[in-house]
Write a structure and sequence with these properties.
3 domains, Cathepsin D, subunit A, domain 1, mainly beta, 9 helices
Length: 539
């Protein structure tokens, strides 16, 4: 049971970090969310006639290059977005204060350059760059099930359904202008009402220059205002994937980082504004984070972002303008501030995580046996010398999260998440639900059912089944095991665009000298003396 509790602690932290808000809230029931807007009256207007009037009102939309600029006000902070599109290709830069994130897609391949200049491919749908355009054309999409539901005031209301959606949405068309004036959709268990106005004619097309999103709490309202729009041709070269540019640190020599190895955790000491702080290395985190209370005590910039809304902490982006880890200097290192801390040991309080952005600054060597972690310049890493005889393991990144391939029994596992932040490796519901015979309970009894005590904006707590599985045959990267024991759960871990088949944790990684080469998307695992003590090699 102690093992299971440790796993649940890891899972609780993991789910908490995935939540956009760190607090409990009561969600509406599905029945309430599916309920049509109140005050609907019958109408004789047909959907084809309504769409014909709408098409005439907005003008002729033809494929063309678009350059648009927007200002966005969200939770007290103003940001600016520049969006350039040419067909399905696009590049969008969103800037808040001194922090910028760029998203793009070129020939069907999406990418993200984070606030620290690190570029990763991504499979996650980029909602942020196109938030102001959401649902405007949903009623016109032929794959959707649509009908004119009725009329409210001076607007016709169209109900839109899609087999892949959990809830319908409603689009309001002004009965005089036939332009979209309002939409209602469900996001994260909340009804979001968007209003569209300030329509302007540009090159024969009517477009809303003002969009306002509201969930019923004015503190969380989001306001979008377009400041420029052009349909002139654009250079297609700007849509290509840019190189990473690590500006926050210069890894020009061998750096051994001051660290504690505590029960699988790798804790390094950062000095910020003269104060020593303990951060955990987390290979599975896309973005580095800092505890919001510590950020407040250090006086880190908020760029106008509010810290609390309705008594709840709100996460925000900030910057460590100057920090050090031993001899390694960090400058203008962007991190996310949110409530996060725990005691790795009675005298070690962890107040942040260093994720993929930090690990991309150089080649990372983790020596679990001797308790060492080091950074080297990419040019100084020679696999033929450091890991002679051990193959390179390709890493597939999804917005900073590293995945390797393997198999469980006869089943391919394409998405094994490499995350030393987990004490124990876990087979997730992506495997256990589909191939239960591959992960039999070691003890043969009914699985334990427990509640993971995490909170997000949807609910508090989650019931999961968890058991110790005896896996007859497992391949993790190039390492092949027989009769391997691993924690299993029926829960799916939703991280980035991928759903992990397995989370490969520190219980596995600590058996190797680990070499993480994020810049070249590769991993090396060199068995150490602990591996030799536990396993014997075989054919």
């Amino acid at each position: 049971m102690f093992v299971l509790l440790r796993v649940l602690c890891s899972a609780a932290v993991f789910f908490f970090l995935l939540s956009s808000q760190g607090y409990a809230a009561t969600s509406q029931t599905d029945a309430a969310l599916n309920k049509a807007p109140a005050g609907m009256s019958e109408t004789t207007e047909t959907f084809p006639a309504l769409m014909a009037s709408h098409a005439k009102a907005i003008g002729k939309r033809v494929p063309r290059s678009v350059t648009a600029q927007w200002t966005i006000l969200r939770e007290g902070v103003a940001s600016a977005e520049k969006l350039v599109r040419n067909g399905a290709d696009y590049v969008s830069t969103i800037t808040k204060g001194s922090i910028s994130n760029t998203y793009g897609q070129f020939l069907g391949h999406a990418w993200h350059r984070d606030a620290n200049g690190i570029v990763f491919p991504t499979s996650t749908v980029d909602d942020g760059s196109f938030a102001m355009y959401r649902v405007l054309a949903d009623a016109e999409d032929p794959k959707n099930d649509v009908k004119v539901a009725g009329k409210i005031g001076n607007a016709y209301v169209v109900e839109v359904k899609n087999s892949s959606w959990k809830h319908p949405e409603w689009v309001y068309y002004d009965a005089k202008s036939f332009l979209v004036s309002r939409t209602e959709r469900i996001e994260d268990g909340e009804r979001i009402i968007s209003t569209y106005d300030d329509y302007r004619l540009t090159d024969g097309v009517e477009q809303p220059w003002h969009v306002h999103d509201s969930s019923g709490d004015v503190a969380y309202d989001v306001d979008y205002r377009q400041t420029a729009l052009s349909y002139t041709p654009v250079d297609p070269g700007q849509f290509g994937v840019p190189p990473s540019s690590v500006a926050f640190a210069t890894v020009d020599k061998h750096y051994e980082l001051p660290a504690h190895f505590i029960d699988g955790d790798i804790i390094v000491r950062l000095v910020v504004n003269g104060r020593g702080l303990d951060f955990k290395i987390s290979s599975g985190m896309s973005q580095s984070i800092i505890d919001s209370e510590v950020a407040r005590e250090l006086g880190l910039p908020t760029f106008g972002h509010v810290r609390r809304i309705a008594g709840h902490d709100v996460s925000y982006d900030t910057v460590l303008q100057s920090a050090s880890i031993g001899d390694l200097q960090l400058h203008n290192f962007a991190v996310r501030a949110l409530p996060f801390h725990y005691h790795a040991r009675e005298d070690v309080k962890v107040v942040g995580l260093l994720g993929a952005d930090f690990l991309s600054s150089g080649e990372v060597h983790i020596d679990y046996v001797n308790g060492l972690i080091a950074l080297d310049p990419e040019s100084a890493f020679h696999p033929a010398i450091a890991v002679a005889g051990y193959p390179s393991i390709p890493i597939t990144f999804d917005d900073g999260q590293p995945y390797i391939e393997g198999s469980i029994a006869d089943h391919i596992a394409n998405h094994m998440l490499l995350d030393n932040g987990y004490y124990f490796s876990i087979v997730t519901g992506a495997i256990t639900r589909n191939f239960p015979s591959a992960v039999p309970d070691l003890h043969g009894h009914k699985h334990a059912n427990v509640s993971v005590p995490f909170a997000n904006k949807k609910a508090y707590g989650r019931d999961v089944d968890i058991w110790m599985a005896n896996i007859s045959d497992i391949l993790i990267g190039p390492v092949h095991f027989k009769n391997y024991r691993m924690i299993a759960t029926d829960s799916n871990f939703h991280t980035s665009g991928y759903t992990p088949d397995v989370v490969v944790g520190s219980d596995f990684l600590h058996l190797f000298d680990v070499y993480l080469d994020y810049q070249k998307s590769r991993l090396f695992l060199k068995p150490n003396k602990w591996f030799a003590r536990i396993f014997r090699s075989g054919p």
